């Protein structure tokens, strides 16, 4: 037992040395001397984690250190998980450098060395960590006013409204955000600990751990400070990837999540706004697709409300002068467009003008590099939404085909052809057969081909995203490919363009527009 006793003593000392100083809570506002002390602690933590690894490897029986292993999880998790990395996991979108820099500031104690070592540490007993550590931390604070802490279920309105002496929680609703009721914030890195727990729960264990996982998640998500909302969003996203949909619905947590995610859309004036808005929209789409049957009225209504009221009315109306926020919504929109499908047609009047605006409007001073880069990113983000919108709303594209075509041609001319030394050398990768009969975009036609509203481009649009979203050259190259893909998608939806407007425009500007439009298959065969 002597070796184990020695290791337990060493382990206890190491865990105490790895407790994150409270000064990191105010790291951004710290004085230079204070920040230097914190930075020095962060550097030294790598050596402590390396020593912790050796101590754990030397233990003969992990069972004898059951309680200490729980402490290992609590101490190591804040080094293993950070918002910047989690924000980039499983995302089909560009990752912007300025967003990454903002998020890195949320975990200033992490160094590359400490993160690598923390990932190597193995721990167990998720339920025990939730029960004995996380739950005890939140027990010292006021509980979430809409959740039963015993079952993890959503409380009925009747109980919330009743006085506490009658079994209700109305006083907790009022005191939820009081300073004395938020003592859990004294634990720096708590969000990472909860994320580790959720990340380690298997689907078959959720039923047993539900009452332990949900209350802290909802407390973070509904907190008034954005940094805790951010962790709540990241944890909710991880939960939605593995939690049984039936459990979300049966416990009423799907409704609470819907409300909480929607409220986050009002946070539009802080540095974290682009990230939390995009995550809120993405998690909402995932929640609706998980908890509503495909093709159901419930799913259609939820997605329609999110698109029409949540994005078009509540965000775009107030963020016309905040391109980073608009870009964040555009990054979240492709999944929503694909999920809502042809139901997007009712929103074309609000969507199309917003999506083509970056294509036809150009920065007032293009000599400013950051503004130029942001505008390129906005154009690409708009096209990543416009292309699937054309596809799913193909039966209604005849009303918008000229508006979209005009914007695409203008953008190509200004951003691609005018900046190319040899625009005639540009060539579209798309090949398209001309229609054999009148297309459905011509009024009065009766013998019309059926347009597949879910047509998929031969090349995945994700493959033409810029490899480096912060590079002007990569963005310019990607923009040209997206514009070419847009004319191809538009021709799929409105085939008569290939025999009328496309040839007409090519005849007028063959040098400039040659590379924009898809190549006729007849020319390919002739070659």
Automatic annotation (TrEMBL):
Q: Name one Pfam family in it.
A: Tti2
Q: Where is the composition biased (Low complexity)?
A: 421-435
Q: Which residues form a coiled coil?
A: 52-106
Signal peptide positions on this chain: none
Q: Which InterPro entries match?
A: ARM-type_fold (IPR016024), Tti2 (IPR018870)
Q: Does the keyword Coiled coil apply?
A: yes
Q: Any idea what this protein is called?
A: Uncharacterized protein
Source species, please? Coprinellus micaceus
């Amino acid at each position: 037992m002597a070796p184990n006793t020695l290791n337990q003593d060493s382990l206890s000392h190491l865990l105490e040395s790895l407790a994150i100083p409270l000064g990191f809570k105010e790291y951004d506002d710290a004085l230079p001397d204070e920040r230097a002390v914190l930075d020095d602690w962060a550097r030294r933590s790598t050596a402590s984690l390396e020593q912790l690894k050796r101590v754990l490897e030397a233990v003969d029986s992990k069972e004898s250190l059951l309680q200490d292993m729980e402490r290992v999880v609590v101490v190591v998790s804040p080094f293993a998980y950070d918002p910047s990395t989690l924000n980039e996991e499983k995302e089909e979108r560009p990752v912007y450098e300025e967003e990454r820099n903002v998020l890195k500031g949320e975990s200033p104690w992490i160094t590359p060395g400490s993160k690598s070592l923390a990932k190597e540490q193995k721990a167990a007993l998720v339920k025990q960590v939730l029960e004995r550590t996380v739950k005890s931390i939140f027990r010292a604070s006021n509980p979430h006013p809409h959740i039963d802490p015993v079952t993890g279920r959503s409380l009925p309105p009747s109980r919330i409204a009743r006085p506490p002496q009658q079994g209700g929680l109305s006083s907790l609703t009022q005191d939820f955000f009081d300073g004395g009721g938020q003592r859990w914030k004294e634990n720096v890195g708590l969000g990472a600990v909860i994320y580790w727990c959720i990340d380690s729960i298997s689907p078959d264990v959720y039923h047993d751990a539900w009452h332990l996982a949900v209350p802290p998640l909802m407390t973070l998500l509904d907190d008034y400070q954005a940094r805790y909302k951010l962790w709540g969003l990241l944890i909710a996203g991880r939960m939605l990837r593995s939690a049984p949909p039936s459990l979300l619905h049966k416990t009423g947590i799907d409704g609470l999540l819907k409300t909480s995610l929607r409220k986050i859309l009002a946070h539009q004036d802080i540095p974290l706004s682009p990230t939390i808005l995009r995550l809120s929209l993405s998690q909402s789409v995932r929640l609706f697709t998980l908890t509503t049957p495909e093709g159901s009225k419930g799913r259609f209504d939820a997605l329609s409300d999110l698109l029409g009221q949540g994005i078009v009315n509540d965000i775009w109306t107030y963020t016309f002068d905040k391109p980073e926020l608009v870009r964040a919504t555009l990054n979240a929109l492709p999944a929503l467009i694909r999920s809502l499908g042809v139901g997007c047609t009712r929103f074309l009047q609000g969507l199309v003008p917003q999506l083509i605006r970056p294509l036809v409007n150009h920065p007032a001073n293009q000599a400013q590099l950051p503004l130029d880069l942001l505008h390129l990113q906005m154009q690409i983000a708009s096209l990543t939404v416009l292309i699937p919108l054309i596809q799913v709303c193909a039966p209604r594209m005849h009303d918008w085909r000229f508006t979209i075509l005009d914007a695409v041609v203008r953008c190509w001319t200004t951003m691609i052809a005018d900046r190319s030394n040899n625009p005639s050398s540009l060539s579209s990768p798309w090949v398209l057969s001309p229609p054999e009969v009148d297309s459905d975009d011509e009024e009065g036609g009766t013998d019309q081909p059926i347009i597949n509203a879910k047509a998929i481009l031969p090349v995945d649009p994700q493959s033409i995203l810029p490899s480096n979203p912060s590079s002007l050259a990569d963005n310019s190259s990607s923009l040209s490919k997206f514009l070419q893909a847009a004319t191809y998608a538009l021709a799929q939806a409105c085939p008569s363009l290939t025999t009328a407007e496309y040839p007409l425009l090519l005849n007028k500007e063959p040098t400039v527009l040659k590379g924009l439009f898809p190549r006729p298959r007849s020319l390919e065969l002739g070659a």
